[in-house]
Records
---
Amino acid sequence: MSETPDRTRPSRWAENGAAQPGRRVVVVGTGLAGLSAALALAAREVSVTLVGPRYSADAGRSDTRSTALFGPSLDFLERLGVLQRLTARPVPLVGLRLVDATGGILRAPEVLFEAAEIGLSEFGMNIENTSLLAAFAEAVAAAPGIEWLPAMLETCVIDAGGASLRLADGTGIEAALIVGADGEHSASRGHAGISTRAWTYPQVAIASRFAHRRPHGGISTELHRRAGPLTTVPLAGNWSSLVWVEEPSEAVRLMALDDAAFALALERCLGSALGGVSEVGRRADRRAACGSGG
């Protein structure tokens, strides 16, 4: 059983935000959150050990997801030196269209929010995950003070003096602080004794990308439906990313369709708002879930 950290002991941080000499912070997890944390800490001259798999370009090519980021997040990544390293140009999000597709007798009017209405050129940017993760990996490699150990966390013991970690390859690490950024089934959270409870909803999200004949104009469209939202977010050219939430049985049916049949179903669900759907990327599905920590 993990011990609860003593929050009454003196802070290990100097007034300027840097760690005390000889103390190290371990960031467990090498997704977007973990890489961001490592770079932000290193920028404050904190010695960081990053624990988790390295970015793989081969694995990244199968990832069809993208991440929509808005002003403060983009400013943060620019300060970390990540945006400047992107190989694929981010796509500006200049508008957000909300559509009532619940099928009710009384239908709410369609709403389009435009960035220009509040004096902005765009609300944010949509960035392909492959490009974003590659830029993060390059920035981490160039940052002084970050040691990247490509192994998984195996055990962790927390006491009044800090934490002792052992990785799957046998490496041992002593740390003043652990940043747990290792996802839904976080090993670091478990070792810290932080309990959680989780539950699911009768919904499944299908994620993909698709090509369409009409230009998206930099506008993200969100259909509010009885089964759940269907959202398209602009990508480069006449492509958009897709998150389509459905009831589980319907999601199973849609996932079983071949690409041509899925494209036709998507086109019909969108009411041909983006014209014909001519190509569909790799599909992934995930059951909707929530959780809380205590």
Note: The longest strand covers residues 196-212.
---
Amino acid sequence: MRKMIVCTLVVIFGFMNFSFGQNKSVTEKISIQTYDEKGILKQTELTGNDALSLDIPSYIKEYDQLGRLTINGYIKTDLATTIIRFDSNKQEADGDYICKNVNTILKPFIGVKAIGRDDLNGVDLERVVYASPAAIAGINISESIMEFDGEVINSYCDLTAAVNASEIGETVEVIMKKGARQYSKYITIGSREVSTVTYKYCDEEQYDIIPANELKENPIEATLTSYPNPTRSLSHINFTSTSDEDVIFRVMGITGQLIHQEVITDYTGNLRIDYNLENESDGTYIMSIQQGNDIYKHKVQLTK
């Protein structure tokens, strides 16, 4: 039986290679602090569309003449978490450009939110994320989780710890309860993506570089376009490629937060996707197509 780890209460939502659709839960918050020689000069809290539309590199350039500038925040969806960091006092070098380092880790994920029962025996499910491992296993909000991979669950904290102690890709038994009946279901542990984006000064403008060992003798010919651009809501994405590998389509915000992802397994050389940005705030969005190790990106401006 697996030894339980120290419990940290986190939401078990995140990223998985399935089509999630455009229904999502979003939480965002960015805190900006400016300092002078006497201490904090101004503190600003951005939430909602104000946080999502913040152009961080431009903001840093505009206010970097102050004594100190810090930007910290996060953007969480059902698909991923992006953590944002900048501190002008922790820069290793000066420069005319703003670059970013992105560190991404994968954590075990099943895609549920639950609440502890009054009798401290199991947890009642409040939400199951669409197309998550829990949803694929047939788990729904009318059920309760009593045990997870041999661990007795007495609280949501217990469930969180049990999931975090699991291995991504393994299949575990979950003891469920509905009414007086108890039964087993089996979940294959997925993964949620947590990315930490750290902004820094740099001497040269940042570009995506393809390592020499990844260059192909017969490179794939591909094109990615969209129209209209700018758009008021609907974006028509067209992709053509000489490769017949599966396609992963992603939509990301300008700071890299994942908004939408779907996998197309029957790609035959031409792809047309109509994606609606009507629920997003004005700003720049990145349409991305991945085939194997090749990634193609196209920026779309949303102006309502």
Note: The helical segments are 48-52, 56-63, 133-136, 156-164.
---
Amino acid sequence: MSSGKSLTQKVIEYIKFHPGAKPADIADYLGISPKLVRAILSRLRARGIIVRTEKGYFLRPGAEASEKGLTQRLLEEEKVSEELESGKQLAEAIASLATSAEAAKPHEEGESRAQQASLTSATPVSSHDVEALKKFVEELRSRAQNIEDAQSKIIKKVEELESRVQGAESQFEEITKRLTEIGSRIEKLESAINKITNELSAVKAQSMQVREVKPSGENHTSLGYCTKLVVEALDVVKMSLESIRIGDVHSLESLTQELEDLVSRIRKCLKLKE
């Protein structure tokens, strides 16, 4: 094969003299990478210059008949190869520059720090700048103090609210305790009233059986007097039940005492009557 030709032309000539060539064979012969050979073969197939079969690559029948067209294709492929080669060289150059820059970075950083220190020491600071800086610092301190004061006020209000909540909880517990006690006392009073009511019913039944009535209405042993006490006791029972309904504990206690006194008097009256 002749020298001085592009890689594309060399690949075509190799396939021409070696029908059924494999990419690995072409790469070994030309001393290039198989990846580059496959790229060239792919472009040649796309342009209709070669065909691929199970045995390998072949020149397409009739591809040599049009020498002018083949030459044009070769020139185009050569241009592409040159562009690839240029791109490869450019990439290598960029990589070299990156490596050099990375190696010089510590030195540049040191020089940059030195330059900054030099500029800092060399740049004069005016009294106006110093005063402006002091004013800015004072404003920051004032704002920080205002924030701290607001925070203290918020904390104080939160503590007050917590104290009020605790007081309300304590009051609620006390009210609950009192309501429980009142409920217990009402239950006891209801039991006492029921007992007294039963006794009054028995007294009423007993008084209905009495046949003799003494003429003196003032006599505490007369039937009329006993009946009057029973009626009063029944009125007290009604008032006690009303007090239970409305929850008037104090009135209920006094009514219960009065009812017990009436029952005691009724018992004495009936005993004397007998």
Note: The chain is about 80% helix and 0% strand.
